[in-house]
Sequence to fold (272 residues):
Amino acid sequence: MPDNVSRKDFVALVGTVVAVEALPASATAETATPRHTVPVPSLGSEPEAYTFFTAPESAFIEAAVERLIPSDKLGPGGREAGVAFYIDQQLSGQFGYAAKMYKQGPWMPDAPPTFGYQLPLTPQQVYRLGIAATNAYCGKTYGKTFDKVDGTHQDDVLTALDRSQLKFDSVPAKAFFEMLYGNAVEGFFADPLYGGNRDKVGWKLVGFPGAAAAYYPFIEKHNVPYVVNPQSIADLQHAEETAMAAMTAGESAGPMDMSVHLALAKKALGVQ
Fold:
């Protein structure tokens, strides 16, 4: 991690965002409510609560993501963007259990990155052990847990993790930091449906339009800013539900074709 963490340094990593391992349960439900059925809650409408992290662990993660993605003149940081909640939700699902990861040895800790993940630990275990070990180090060094240490010393600890300057018996410090950092990047830029990127702050920061694929008419317009209000999956779901309700009221509730979807996306984005 750089000595002076800045938003611009962090945003340069936007291209490293990887696909999210699992969708929340609500994301697999029908977006339109069939007649004579129980209505399905809208995407992103469920209350937020940590389901994996304990209180001390969530305090650590909230403090860490705020140092990795600090609030500044460009906008909110990791804490306000919900990055900690995003990580918690991923750890509660398939990613946390390593459901799609190779889990049989032999493991080669010194293997190059092309060999893939080289730990016998699930992501849940990496976080739980890594947080405990880092808090133990902070307690021994500063007399406080990580979340209670001042920002400068928090940066020192994160830098030491990144540079393998700390040695833990339970989990490699570098591996813990890389997983935390990678998941923080995901949480800041993923669709808000997954728990992070609240108010689409990450998308607004880099000018990403979101899930509405209505920009192909503008591809050939070079050097012209594409300024839109980013739209999330939940935004488009709401637009489609509204359109379906209107079509039903007009006794034309057949399936929407692509032209209707495109019109909704363009209207949501505010483009002509």
Summary: Residues 216-269 form one domain. The radius of gyration is 21 Å.
